[in-house]
Specification:
The structure is a single chain. The chain is α+β, with helices and mostly antiparallel strands and 340 residues long. Helix content is 38%, strand content 24%. It is built from nine helices and 13 strands. The strands form three sheets. A five-stranded antiparallel sheet has the order 2-1-5-4-3. A five-stranded mixed sheet has the order 7-9-10-12-11, with helices on one face. A hairpin with a 2-residue loop joins strand 3 and strand 4. Helix 4 runs antiparallel to helix 5 and helix 6 packs parallel to helix 7. The longest helix has 42 residues. The two termini are 41 Å apart. The model has no long low-confidence stretch (mean pLDDT 80).
Length: 340
């Protein structure tokens, strides 16, 4: 009964934690701890750290030993690749004695290390400066491209040699493609001019629908209940995925957007009703070689979302259309506050 009560109480606590013995065996983890790693508690409990498929902080065994030796709480700064996302954390190791025969056990909990306010200002100023310089350089390049395309068009009109005119036409096409690619970067410079904030996830998804072509979009209920801490450009990445899906040659006419919650993490799902994709081609959806200036949403999402703390994968079956899943960890998610 005591064990059952202990589990109920610790599972009700939102703060994730683990309990190790001195050998590094996971003696216990609450639901929040296992959920943050997208695991069940029985996949971790009773195993040595190295026997699990979780990459715990590198020097953790030493910190456990130091806490046992000192017989007191130990707080250290560490780097942890939690759930595939590298982050700086502040760890606390606390010796515990839950019964007389349990030996030396240590409770480990952590929190993301806060960024000093002054560092935030320096970062923001640097990002704004980068955005200004990027816009200036892009403006100058576009001006020169416009001049070059204009002279090429004049040359095409003045030259009668059909072979030379064919070469000039190809040069104009290449220059126009470069022009569109540079103009495209204007959308993504926003990431260098805005700091992260709490974004209404439901609203971001609804706004992203405008990026795709006309299709039968279905948004399952529930997304409007959540907010995500990230850059405002999140909408652009979702929209880019929808654009690639709906302009796909697989004849997509319907897209369903939904979500699921597991261990406090939210997974945004985007599935379509288009033709099937061979298993050996699914991962290639994210490769740059498969995109053009009008189809690069998959590639950009795969490149940027991990940098924001999220992960993305294609999880559809061979018989179905594409199914994209974006995983948002619990630390970046909160339930929207309802103002009555």
């Amino acid at each position: 009964m005591k064990d059952e009560m202990f589990r109920k109480v610790t599972d009700a606590i939102g703060c994730p934690f683990f309990i190790f013995n001195s050998a590094g065996e996971v003696m216990y983890t609450n639901r929040a701890g296992a959920g943050m790693l997208d695991r069940n508690t029985d996949q971790i409990t009773g195993k040595l750290r190295e026997e699990t498929d979780v990459l715990f902080p590198e020097h953790q065994l030493k910190h456990i030993s130091d806490a046992v030796t000192a017989g007191a709480s130990l707080t250290v700064d560490e780097t942890w690749d939690a759930a595939g996302t590298r982050q700086s954390i502040e760890s606390t190791y606390l010796p515990v004695n839950l019964s007389t025969d349990c030996g030396e056990w240590v409770l480990w909990t952590w929190k993301t290390r806060a960024v000093p306010t002054n560092s935030e200002k320096i970062l923001f100023d640097a990002l704004v400066k980068f955005r200004e310089m990027n816009a200036l350089i892009r403006h100058d390049i576009l001006n020169q491209l416009t001049i070059m395309i204009g002279f090429l068009q004049f040359s095409e009109d003045m030259i009668e040699d059909l072979k030379v005119r064919e070469f000039i036409k190809k040069e104009i096409t290449a220059a126009e493609k470069v022009q569109r690619q540079i103009e495209f970067t204007r959308e993504y410079q926003e990431i260098a001019g805005n700091m992260p904030c709490w974004i209404d996830l439901g609203q971001a998804v609804r706004d992203a629908l405008g990026e795709g072509k006309d299709a039968d979009y279905t948004i399952e209920p529930g997304l409007e209940e959540y907010e995500v801490f990230t850059f405002p450009i999140l909408q652009k990445f979702i929209g880019g995925i929808l654009r690639d899906i709906t302009f796909s040659p697989r004849n997509v006419t319907g897209v369903r957007l939904g979500h699921r919650i597991s261990g406090g993490n939210l997974t945004l799902t985007i599935g379509d009703n288009g033709g099937s994709i061979p298993p050996d081609k699914r991962e290639l959806l994210f490769e740059r070689e498969w995109v053009s200036e009008t189809a690069n949403g998959f590639f950009l999402a795969r490149e940027f979302l991990p940098a924001l703390g999220f992960s993305i994968a294609e999880t559809g079956s061979p018989e179905s259309g594409a199914r994209i899943e974006i995983r948002i960890p619990a630390g970046y998610l909160r339930t929207k506050k309802i103002v009555s």
